[in-house]
Structure formats: C-alpha cells, structure tokens
Amino acid sequence: MVTRLAVLGDSIAWGQGAARARDRLAPRLADGLALHGLEVDVGVFAVPGARSSGLASQVRAALAWSPDLAVVVIGANDLTHRAPVADAVQALADAVRKLREADVQVVVAPAPDLSSVPHVPAFLRDAVRAAGQSLRRHQVAAVVEAGGHVADADQRASRAFAGDPSLFSADRFHPSSAGYAVIADALLPALLVAADLSP
C-alpha cells in the first residue's frame, strides 16, 4: 500500500536552492521513509514565498489529493515580512486543524532561527533570534493543541546551519542540497512517529 505524503509551506518545503530536483526536501523525506519500509507518493503543494496566511489554499489543494500524511514547513517568510505573530499562528493552527479533520497526520516544522543566515548583520542577530523563538514557541503550542506533531523540537537543523555555511545555497538564504539533507534528517523522526513507524 502506498502512503500519500503532502508537503506544504514555503520555499524550503518546495526545495528552492537545491542543485537538483531529487535533492529537494520532498524526495529526501520520501527516501527516508522508504528506508523504514514505507512506500510513499509525494505531492508538493508548497509555494515559494508563502507565509502562514497562504496555507489555507494549499490545504484545500492537498485535501483534494487525499493525503495520508502532511508536512508543513512555515514561518521564515512570516519573520522576514514581520507578520503579526497572532495572525501567523492562527493561520497555521487552522491549517493543521483542517488537515486533522480529514484524518491526515500532520508534522510541522516551525520557524527556523534566521539569525544564522549569512547576510544578517551581527548587530541584528540577537533581535532576529528572539523574534524567531517567539514565533516558534507560539507555533509549537498551537500545533500540539490542533493535534499535529512538531518536528525538530531541539532546533538541530538551525544549529547545523549556524555552524556550516555550506548548508546555504548561492543566494545565502535558502538551503543547498546538503542543507536539505540536514533538514530532512531533522524532520524524519517526527514523520516516523506520525506514520506510526518510530522504533
């Protein structure tokens, strides 16, 4: 039996910055699940540049495809556009709730720590980190309340990016192919739990 995995969210969910299509997040997640015996068909509904406010249309499109699992990667553009935290969190909670109502297991990768982005000036990094932590904290609470799973709870991916510039692509913002490997590895444990495949 093939499991349908929907990938929603922003440019990271879509895979912008990867050198090859197979290096993007969705194929890497599919490969990771396959190693645990789960054959998946992946549908990518993510839109580069999307903020949480854009999730509703992605959810509608995904539900028309009837997924079993969904991964949502969102928050970076809410931070860069200074979207009100309450609005962003409410939109994410609504998206998770709508998917759960359709019996879709949902895994959310909340806002990353953008202070590690190379072109963020040093004097702004503390403020950028604090803004990200605030959004992430509210996202996590809302996702759990809505019945979803939270991926990368210990921010392993963000820490890896902070210590290795090669994980960024040439635009110094989006992940490189190597960066997507790190992100997929950080998301996989929660995805295995959602798919009831965790050891």
Q: What would a concise description of this structure say?
A:
With 199 residues, this protein is an alpha/beta fold.
Structure write-up:
With 199 residues, this protein is an alpha/beta fold. It is built from eight helices and five strands, in the order βααβαβααβαβαα. The protein has a five-stranded parallel beta sheet with strand order 2-1-3-4-5, with helices on both faces. Helix 6 links the parallel strand 4 and strand 5.
Order of helices and strands: EHHEHEHHEHEHH
**Assembly state (oligomeric):** single chain
List how many beta strands DSSP finds: 5
**CA distance, first residue to last residue:** 20 Å
Radius of gyration: 15 Å
Give the second-level CATH assignment, the architecture: 3-Layer(aba) Sandwich
Mean pLDDT: 96
Main β-sheet: number of strands, strand sense, barrel status?
A: 5 strands, parallel
Q: Name the CATH superfamily classification.
A: SGNH hydrolase
CATH class: Alpha Beta
| Side-by-side strand order of the widest sheet | 2-1-3-4-5
Query: Helix count, per DSSP?
Result: 8
CATH topology: Rossmann fold
What global shape is seen?
globular
By helix and strand content, what is the structural category? alpha/beta
Residue fraction in strands: 5-15%
State the domain count.
Answer: 1
Please estimate the helix content. 40-55%
Low-confidence stretches: none
